[in-house]
Design brief:
LysR_subst-bd, WH_DNA-bd_sf, rod-shaped, transcription regulation, LysR family transcriptional regulator, DNA-binding, 12 strands, 12 helices, two-stranded antiparallel ribbon, 8-stranded mixed beta sheet
């Protein structure tokens, strides 16, 4: 360290003893003596008068001692200031999320981040998966959290966590009396669906197609909240993220039905433009999202509603 010789000199001057200074600094006495001699040679002046009984600073030593104390203090401050350049997170963060994540996960993640890094200005946007993905690709958002499959070669995609999709029905619905249903039970039903472009809509459409389910009639709503309320009102059945109906299921406002032999899982992902330089705020926010502590806390507080 560039300040080591001055630190050694100051310690010797204050303890007035080479042996005690060496012990304090975890150095050998010859090393301490060598550093003092090197300082004296560099400055061209004797700094310390040594005698068998005592040690005292020369006039040159007194001058160096006074200024060395200041230099060491300034050096420590410089280290702290430079360290803050790499540890203090400032600037802005433009983050987006599709509706399910934006309404039920992002607020908690942002609250934790804002508490740790209050100097970051946060701008959050919520829309469906297609709209949010396009906002990232056009560089209007730094990064985003989306549900379902996203396939664009210009995007960097990281898996965040699994999301369970469940079938919910009105309490008065005929299916609500069944402990478990099969694909046959879902034929010729009225379905509540999200709009095109929604990750949940894509998931529902694929499942209905793969299972060859005939949809008697469908009603389209533009948000997860509206879908949930439509089911509660008795308008039809729906596939939704387990995140959005926890409170309603606990309050027995609607019914979740297990599908025989099926557990419907999709992935929540973090997306950002490839080759874009990440700001400190982006890096730290992404690290927080991917931390096991955050995900474990979210999952522990939101267990599967069908377990």
């Amino acid at each position: 360290m560039i300040a080591d010789p001055l630190k050694i000199f100051v310690t010797v001057a204050e303890l007035k003893n080479f042996s005690r200074a060496a012990e304090e600094l975890y150095l050998s006495q010859p090393s301490v003596s060598l550093q003092i001699r090197n300082l004296e040679n560099e400055l061209g002046s004797k700094l310390i008068n040594r005698s068998p009984k005592h040690l005292e600073l020369t006039q040159s030593g007194e001058i160096l001692y006074s200024l060395a104390k200041q230099i060491l203090q300034l050096y420590e401050k410089a280290k702290q200031d430079i360290n803050e350049l790499t540890t203090t997170v400032t600037g802005s963060l433009k983050v987006g999320a599709s509706y399910t994540i934006g309404e039920y996960i992002l607020p908690f993640a942002l609250a934790e981040f804002a508490a740790q890094f209050p100097n970051v200005d946060i701008d959050a946007s919520i829309a469906n998966t297609v709209e949010i993905t396009q906002a990232v690709r056009s560089n209007h958002l730094d990064l985003a959290l989306v549900e379902g499959e996203v396939n664009h070669p210009d995007l960097d995609i990281q898996a965040l966590m699994d999301d369970e999709i469940i079938l919910v029905v009105p309490n008065q619905h005929a299916l609500a009396r069944l402990p478990i249903v099969t694909a046959d039970h879902l034929q010729d039903r009225v379905w509540i669906l999200r709009e095109s472009g929604s990750g949940t809509r894509d998931f529902s459409d694929k499942l209905i197609k793969d299972w060859n389910i005939n949809v008697k009639k469908s009603h389209i709503f533009g948000s997860s909240q509206a879908v949930k309320q439509a089911v509660i009102a008795g308008l039809g059945i729906a596939l939704v993220s387990s995140w959005i109906v926890r409170k309603e299921l606990a309050a027995k406002e609607l019914t979740a039905i297990r599908i025989k032999g099926k557990r419907l899982i999709r992935t929540f992902s973090i997306i950002r433009l490839k080759n874009n330089e990440m700001s400190k705020a982006m890096n730290v926010f992404t690290e927080n999202l991917l931390s096991h502590d955050l995900i474990s806390s979210l999952i522990d507080n939101n267990p599967s509603v069908l377990d």
